[in-house]
Amino acid sequence: MLFREAYALGLPSQGTDVAVIWDHLYLFLLWLSVFFFILVVGGMLYFAVKYKKSSGAKPKYIVDNHALELFWTIVPTILLLVIFGWGWSVYKKMVHAPTNAMEIRVIGKQWLWNFQYDDGRVLTNEVYVPQNVPVKFVMSSEDVIHGFFIPNFRVKSDVVPGMFTTIWFEAKQAGEHQVFCTEYCGASHSLMLAKVKVLEADKWEAFKRGKPVQVTGAKPEASLTQLSLPEQGAKLVAAKGCNACHNATGDAGGIGPTYKGLFGHDVELADGSTVKADENYIRESIMTPTAKIVKGYNPVMPPFQGIVNETEMNAIIAYIKSLQ
Ligand code: CUA
Fold this sequence. Notes:
By secondary structure, this protein is an alpha+beta fold.
């Protein structure tokens, strides 16, 4: 144990399997650098002392040594390829969420974090997740660029206005894990903290059964939070007039395309290309509808910049997602 701590130099606790493989790679790089630092600097000092000549001495002409040159070319090349392959495999595990991951939406704003659950609950600066279940955070920002970092899980991503970014993790350790904002976002950046609270299966079941949690600092009206996220979305598209042109029935004859069967599918555009209808596509189609025109429809939709906030955006996307 003591050896591990000395070797790992006090890295945060390993809350996920990704943290374990991430640490292996990080510590390999670190100790490899230490090894070569000692080899190079030690060798330099040793030779400087050993071959010191008085001033005026004529240096000997040294011809090249092919064996040595091949050695110091091939060995570092192999090392770099190993590091690349290793890093690639850790990175893939880090960024590719399992398809069955539970989704929670995260909204960053100066200077707090809101967490939106599918059942409509919104929590501020704390998020409850089940232990040993893959969880995916779909994140956006209400104002400036923030950074979402859970050191214990070794996952981190910028949270950027106008787009969605994601992280995922499968928490192994029940209990609290600290979240930091890692992009300077204004006066109270250092206070933009949150806690990930990992619950064992029985506690998670109790949390799921729990009543809607009090909304603090969040936008949605109190009445809306009693509804599930897709239900909130259904109300919002009606309230914002979307249903004048779009429908949920799958009928393609409207002024705009139907919501039904859209999410996760390929959409054919007027310019002949296709695009996958994911969170970012739907956001763009709401905020700047003329960016991608769906084949067979006219560019008549007005932009909804400033009309749909991030909380509402997540609800609308959850609604469209539910209409498969
Ligand atoms: Cu948000 Cu720094």
